Amino acid sequence: MMPATDWEALRPTIVTAVGETLLMVGATIIMGGILGLALGVLLNTTRRGGILENRVLHTVLNVLVNIIRPIPFIIFAAALGPLTLAVTGSTIGAKSMIFPLTIASTFGISRIVEQNLVSVDPGVIEAAQAMGASPWRIIRTVLIPEALAPLILGYTFALVAVIDMTAVVGAMGGGGIGDFALSYGYRRYDWAVTWAAVVVIIVFVQIAQFIGNALARKALRH
Question: Are 137 and 164 within 8 A, CB to CB?
Fold first, then answer.
């Protein structure tokens, strides 16, 4: 029979793990979100018939996204180890894992952005062009605002994926709630700790989904 879990002793550890997860998720969704938005806009606008049509650039970017996006994250993060070390000075710890998390999320988000921008009515863009609007102004005042609600839902999906990825990096010494579940739960056969980690992840995901849905509804009303 396994001894009872000493939650009092584990409390500082789980608080630290939650903080590390929030740090990784927050930094990744901000940096990856911005870079992914820029890349997604480029993918959309440089395609055939786009306002910045450039078939060579579009092909290069499209192939790059298609190569990187399907790679399982744990393999991608491991392969990126030398570059992570060069950039951050380490390959372990929450701060170091932000780098591969950001790179991976950038390519995932870019495809989400591109797919949502495709749904914008071409007539609206043509009307803006007819009025003499520059490509940058069309992107800023027409393209993104017209797709705002689905973009919010897409970013919510990406945020949930990032939460999942931060749990995965626990297996690579990345810290966070994944490392807590493995080190203090799975490896010690303490299933109560493992399930506590599961509950924390579920809470994170539910909060993210609730906020994302609320923001999308607000965007639709406007």
Answer: no
Q: How far apart are the C-alpha atoms of 123 and 191, rounded to whole Å? A: 57
Using 50, 70 and 90 to split pLDDT, how confident is the model at 78? very high
Residue 217 has, within 13 A of its CA and on its CB side, a CA count of: 6
Cα 73 from Cα 169, distance rounded (Å) = 9
As a whole number of angstroms, the distance between CA 193 and CA 181 comes to: 6
Largest Cα–Cα separation, the chain: 76
pLDDT tens figures, 131-140: 888 989 999 9
* Residue located via tokens 């591969």: 100
Residue 191, SS3 per DSSP: helix
Question: Does the domain at residues 9-221 carry the CATH identifier 3.40.50.1970?
Answer: no
pTM: 0.90
In this structure, are residues 76 and 104 in contact, taking their beta carbons and an 8 Å threshold?
A: yes
Distance of CA 147 to the CA centre of its chain: 19
Give 20-45 pLDDT, tens digit per residue: 999 999 999 999 999 999 999 999 99
At residue 112's C-alpha, the angle toward residues 111 and 117, to 5°, is 95
Judged by DSSP in three states, 18 sits in helix
pLDDT top residue among 117 and 4: 117
Domain boundaries, the chain: 9-221
Two tokens, residue 198: 């599961």
